[in-house]
Every structure is written in C-alpha cells, then in structure tokens.
Amino acid sequence: xxxxxxxxxxxxxxxxGRPIVVMAxxxxxxxxxxxGSQHLARQFARNGWKVLYISAPVTPFxxxxxxFHELWRRFRSALGSLTAHEDENIFAYIPFSLIAPAGMPxxxxxxxxxxxxxxxxxxxxxxxxxxxINEIELFYIDNLSYHFLFDCVPHKTSVxxxxxxxERFPSWHGKAKHLAKAIAQQADLTVYSAHGLEPYVESLx
Length: 205
Fold this sequence. Notes:
Elements lengths: L3 E2 L14 E5 L11 H11 L3 E5 L14 H10 L4 E3 L4 E4 L16 H4 L10 H7 L5 E6 L7 H4 L2 E8 L12 H12 L2 E4 L5 H6 L2
Parallel strand pairs: 2-3, 2-6, 3-5, 6-7, 7-8
Antiparallel strand pairs: 1-4, 4-5
C-alpha cells in the first residue's frame, strides 16, 4: 500500500464523472487493524468512486496514553494533510480536536458527544471548502461520534452501518444507543453486518 501526503485537494475534481463517497469510520485507513470499513473503501475505489475516509480524531488527551507507533502516526497525519492511497482513489483524513467522545465519565456525556466537533482544528467545513467538494453521492457512517456530519456533508444518500450492539459496551450503556437512534432516524438506509444484530437494529427505528 502506497501512502503519501497531498498538498492539493483532488477530491473536488469531479469533472471526470466519478462519484464521491465520504466515509465516517473509526480505525485509520492504513491501520494494522483492518475491518469492514477499510475493505468497503477499497471496494468503492475499485468500482470507480473517489473516497474520503475520515477516521477517529486524536486529541491532547491521547498523549496521556502509552505512546505506541500507530498513535504517533495518527498525530502526524492529523497535523498534516490528506494522505492518498490506492492510486489517489482513497484520501484518508484524521481530525485533530481538543476533545473527543470516549467511554469515560464526562467524555461520554452529551456536552462532549454533542459538541466536541466544534473543537476540530481546522474545522471539517474548512476541509470541505478547501477540497472544493460541492456534491457527494453517498455519506457512509459507522462511527457514532460523527453524527454531526449529516449537517456538514452535502450528500444525496446516506447509509448507517451497524457493526456492533452498542449496548454491549458497558461504559457506553444507554448513551451510545441514544446516538445510534438519532443517526438511524437521519440515515436513508441502515444496514448491519451480522444477522444477530437484527433485533438491535430494529430497536433503533
């Protein structure tokens, strides 16, 4: 996999007719942890889409954790620019924010989950403006923290992908499902990754 920093923003060059999908996910595109989100991004790219892949932010509070290599790389990416992958068909972005939701007291409360994105530097809206993104065919979301992108991303269609029963994360009990319900009500389509998730997904309606 070839990765490089982009000093320009080719995502906005839609004159080639390729549709754009914005994906709001958790793990960095290049992470050693490869899950369905990254595989879907590659599949979109193979089928002629341009992909903007947004992963979970880094914050100053991450500096309090053991500083392993991947975290250092996330900080470097967040303080840099978009990184290009797969022959410039996928562009990865890691926001830097002053605070972000986490499964701990205060960080999982509405004050943070509902307003953390206002501390992203530079703002998501500025990213889209610099990228000249005016029309997005599809907005895909599987990270609950990115609920605010429904209002920031000018999209035609939205898909919410449920990969886990959020109620099974003890530190998020009740609070994560509230976010998931709000997203499910805004999305045009909600899909899930396993048959066992069907009762949970139905409870989000």
